[in-house]
Amino acid sequence: MTLQLYGFWRSNAAFRVRVALSLKELAFEEIDVDILSGRQFDAAYAQVNAEHAVPTLVHGGHRLSQSLAIIEYLDEFQPEPALLPSAPRERAYARSLALVSSADAHPLTVPRVRKYLGEAFSADGAAIERWCRHWVAEGLAAYERLLDQRPAAPFALGQDVTIADICIAGQVALADVYGMDRAVFPAVDALASRCFALPAFTDAHPFQQSGYKAANER
Ligand SMILES: N[C@@H](CCC(=O)N[C@@H](CS)C(=O)NCC(=O)O)C(=O)O
Asked: Which atom of ligand 1 is nearest to the CA of 65?
């Protein structure tokens, strides 16, 4: 059965799914939805994703949205390597780490929020960038405190990469997009370096995506 991923080079939520697909060695076709140009609102894409957001994964004609729901689906469909631990407390901890970025920090920086800051509060480009950098840093600071409480060994849950590492690395990739200094968060930086030593993470990083390269060649 074929897998198609509606995504975008800069999309942090699509990054998470790209990493999971790659760790599970599942081949997929990526279809670009340029969320910076508003293509998520096109009528054709609204049929695919009623939330007007990426990612959407299509598997055998069935559509799935929300990156964490997609990754949990992939974990059930292709259990190896497992991206969620099996022990209930570890599983809950992995999910709680994943949600720091995916539910709390990253949503404050997405295009619809940036656009509304401009429209409703007359925030200019510099103010919007300051807003985003603040929430990216807040997410990283929360991860730094969590990793101080329970150090990565070598990944957040132990020997195996989990959904937690995918989301922490995603938050770091956001910082990279904003040109922020990772070294301010040493425990997060060390964990991210371990993640980005793996091709599944490196290849999914926005800087490795053809859209990023095209945007920077213009
Ligand atoms: N919680 C969702 C987030 C989806 C989301 O907001 N995606 C962003 C890109 S990372 C998007 O498509 N934004 C479109 C917009 O803000 O207009 C997930 O994890 O999949």
From this structure: 20
pLDDT of residue 214: 77
Residues 6+ apart with CB under 8 A from 136: 105, 109, 171, 174, 175, 178, 180
Residues with CB under 6 A from ligand 1: 11-13, 35, 40, 53-55, 66-68, 102, 110-112
Q: How far apart are CA 64 and CA 8, in angstroms?
A: 16
Domain range list for the chain: 3-81, 88-207
CATH topology of domain 3-81: Glutaredoxin (3.40.30)
The parts of the chain modelled with pLDDT lower than 50 are: none
Q: What is the pLDDT of residue 218?
A: 54
Which protein residue's CA is at the shortest distance from atom 10 of ligand 1?
A: 11
The reported pLDDT for the residue numbered 199 is 98
Write the class of the CATH domain 88-207: mainly alpha
C-alpha span between 56 and 5 (Å, rounded): 6
Which atom of ligand 1 is nearest to 55's Cα? 20
